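Moderator note: this is an archived Q&A kept for reference. The question asked for a predicted structure of one protein chain; the sequence and the answer are reproduced below.
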Amino acid sequence: MFARAIVIVLDSVGIGELPDAAQYEDQGSNTLGNIAASVPLNIPTLAAMGMSRLVALQQPPAASPTAAFGRMAERSPGKDSVTGHWELMGIVLDRPFPTFPEGFPQDVIEQFEARIGRKSIGNVVASGTAIIDELGPEHVETGFPIVYTSADSVFQIAAHEGIVPVPQLYEWCEAAYDICVMGMGLGRVIARPFIGLPGSFQRTSNRHDYAMPPIGETLLDRLVAKGHQVTSVGKVSDLFAGRGVSASNPSTDHSREHVPVLLAGNGVKAGADLGTRATFADLGQTLAEMFGVGPIANGTSFLREIMKGS
């Protein structure tokens, strides 16, 4: 039916709060709609594909959408990158990854410092660029790594490449992975190297994510096992701990919102309305049916709804 599928995950295009948004203090979230209300958006292709049918933009809804369209709800609890990407590929979690809005417990920091042989600074919830600006000078002076977290389930370590060589930073991340991911069920550890002088620090492309391996079989695993080529771009491979990926090419607070799903191609029925899908995993289930490797554990395929002639 289809020779290949390209899945593009766009950042910052949530289109309205989920029913449980209040549990995450995300009432009123409508990222793309709120942006469109404040800033003129020139997205004629997305609007024509059906985006304007899903969220209020400044232009009227497309009379005849050029693509199949709908929206998806996240069924897993939580709102971090790992959870969302896993669900897209068929894994629905029954509990969120742990988060630390007050910073990590002191015993965790002490274990980490013992493993790396030096003290750390920070241990707060912070923006990565802001905390580097704030604590970067102290780090450069002392060599103490900057530890911080976010609304995600993540232990982040920032260090200047001229003070802490990148391989050493990666070793520290592996120590944090043992303590926090393997020991506590944290979602991931991230290396955040930077360069520059105080007042002009810049993060580099040597970021590396150390994510918990998927807790079950994903669509990616199934595809690779059946001999299909799965190529990831950016941090996708890291989010799946490299599992189910044939080849990878190197490359912030999230919210609980529906996300748009737009599908186009020679075999896709333009204008097909997919409604609101109950889980991100519907996409994974659709691809599993498309490639003849399904069914996977979660999701309902909408392949028949988007095929021409159906």
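Archived answer notes: The CA atoms of residues 189 and 210 lie 5 Å apart.
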